[in-house]
Write a structure and sequence with these properties.
alpha/beta
Length: 156
């Protein structure tokens, strides 16, 4: 069982996928009119899970998790919060999810957190997002970014 990855562990624990493991060039997931789009390079395998209300039912958590297989034993984990305008709350939800033991796994070699929102505070008056990017990198080795709905995320 030591060779098991997070996807296999979640399957064994009875969690169902929103999008089953498969090769796709583009992964999209949406909620409340907001859409996350990931362009996948080299047609790698990916899977999407609903986090909120499925894998994590209590406390603060993000909406979705995308896992992309990098190679035979390494995965990219992307936590996604689909939000209207409350970016600060979205960041709190992503951080809480990163701390959740259920979603930690040694095969998650690259971690990303994405806030998909209708609008973001302007950087001139609000440097919170920039500060959070630095703290996410230091504390979790996680790349935090904000995206507008339907804005493609970089290839994995």
């Amino acid at each position: 069982m030591a060779d098991m990855n997070l996807h296999e562990r979640l399957q064994r624990e009875g969690f169902s996928t929103e999008q089953s493991l498969g090769v796709r060039k583009k992964v999209t997931t949406a909620e409340k009119g907001k859409r996350y789009v990931l362009q996948v390079s080299d047609s790698k395998e990916s899977v999407v899970y609903q986090i909120d209300g499925q894998i994590i039912t209590k406390g603060s958590k993000c909406d979705k998790m995308v896992l992309v297989k990098k190679d035979s034993s390494n995965w990219t984990q992307i936590l996604v919060e689909l939000k209207g305008v409350d970016v600060h709350h979205a960041i709190e939800q992503l951080e809480s999810t990163l701390q959740n033991e259920k979603l930690k796994h040694p095969t998650n070699k690259e971690k990303r957190a994405r806030v998909v929102a209708a609008s973001f505070p302007s950087n001139r008056g609000d440097t919170t997002m920039e500060k959070d990017k630095i703290s996410f990198l230091k504390a979790y080795k996680c790349d935090l970014r904000g995206l507008k709905s339907n804005q493609p995320d970089t290839a994995v």
